[in-house]
Amino acid sequence: MSDPLPRAADLLARRLYEAGCRHAFGMPGGEVLTLVDALDKAGIIFHLAKHENAAGFMAEAVHHRDGAPAILLATLGPGAMNGVNVVANALQDRVPMIVLTGCVDADEALTYTHQVMDHAQVFRPITKGSFRLTAEGSDIIADKAVSLAMQPRPGPVHIDVPIGVADTPVRETRRRRLTTAAPVAPGGTCLETARRWVAEARRPLAVIGLDVLADNSKCVLQAFLEHFEIPFVTTYKAKGILPEDHRLCLGGAGLSPLADSHLLPLVKAADLILCLGYDPIEMRPGWREVWDPEHQRVIDISAVVNDHYMHQAGINIVADTGATLEAIAKGTTGHATWPAGEPQAARAALARAFPQDELWGPAAIIAEARAALPAGTLATADSGAHRILLSQMWRCDEPRGLIQSSGLCTMGCALPMAIGLKLAAPDRPVISFSGDAGFLMVAGELSTAAEMGGNPIFLVFVDASLSLIELKQRGRQLPNRGVDFGHHDFAAIGRAFGGHGHTVRSRAELRAALEAAQAADRFTVIAAEIARGDYDGRI
């Protein structure tokens, strides 16, 4: 007896497995049960989360470890709508994500209205593309979705899967696959001018961004910066592209006015700015037009054409970062730079601005956690005041050692991201940093952490306030309204969901809790209590 024909859902799932996907996350409904079954048969484990938004962040975290597209699965109507936030985040944070939603068949939709809505219309503005699966075209649609999600700049792609189509047997035809494009480097006058500018620069500065993570040009980048003695800053999500204790590294930039007060004067003093895979979607308005290409030489190497207008450049190169840097460096001699030592002075000033030795408060919590946790620890950061401070103080020695929502800056991402990281890297220490408000948004996912196992650490900054918003409110001399809330026992919440819980109010207590959490058999919630106003002057 011959094997039964594969269903359209099977061909879709097989293409995702071929792309390296081994995990999918979401909440099923009757409309996606065939998809769940097909994923399982293809070798992709489906993980049940408690909310689609959190499921998407778990999926993103797995992508940051295995490089494959994230998979978010949601049923029709409210399930799909629950995922809108994380899909928009994937678009702005350049995360390749396949968003699978169930829908009723076209004929059924003509006379049936319950939960029926146009998913494609909703997802079209927040994805790179939206497809409706057909039976005969299922393999091609799957390949188009994977290719579109992964090509520069990466992002989410939506596939709406009608119930009947998912179950339809399909006779397999010749599979079609887009081949991987070879890295492209510039040539001609543009390249010669770039070589001359680099050779003549005495005060060069590089700004490194997300494109470098996507095109895997880390080794070439490091060799280039070292050869030409070019100090550099990174965006927050590009932290660790070179170890942050590297002598040329000036740390992360983009959201901290305090850090910018030391970094932007260096930008102004530079005689050459190199934007290397720099995607300014992470940056606050203070980085808009911070250099003038009429008076400073600026080389912009990016994956796509500049349509953001956050900055301009004298030379715009749309090409692979590594291939371009190799072409510029070929035959170009390096030399000493910054004879007055301004980058070293800025680095020392940043160290004083973000001290490691405070007795208690958010900076002390971050410093103690970094000191107590071993090299190789993976960290996640939620949005809020603590994220700005953490992104300056948390030392990364590898790319994606700290992940966060830095384009959309959505709250509630850190805890589910940590769950995803622990699933993908079970032997690595994992810690999330959340404000208490962001933690409350996703506290139910502690049950998911318990079900998945492992011992991730969830650290919560507890001050019963939306600290960053309250700080802005005071800065505008407005009365305190809508930013403070009740004080809760987060350690008890952790224990209630089957984990460990500790409340800490000193560095010694925090150190003891972190040591216990690393040896624990399950997850730990650490509630670090701080005073309202503790972020004043620190971010």
TrEMBL record:
Keyword Transmembrane attached: no
SUPFAM superfamilies in the record: DHS-like NAD/FAD-binding domain, Thiamin diphosphate-binding fold (THDP-binding)
Entry keyword set: Thiamine pyrophosphate, Transferase
Residue intervals of the Thiamine pyrophosphate enzyme N-terminal TPP-binding domain: 7-121
Gene3D superfamilies, per database record: 3.40.50.970, TPP-binding domain
InterPro entries from the UniProt entry: DHS-like_NAD/FAD-binding_dom (IPR029035), THDP-binding (IPR029061), Thiamin_PyroP_enz_cen_dom (IPR012000), Thiamin_PyroP_enz_TPP-bd_dom (IPR012001), TPP-bd_CS (IPR000399), TPP_enz (IPR045229), TPP_enzyme_TPP-bd (IPR011766)
Protein name (database record): Thiamine pyrophosphate-binding protein
Organism: Ruegeria alba
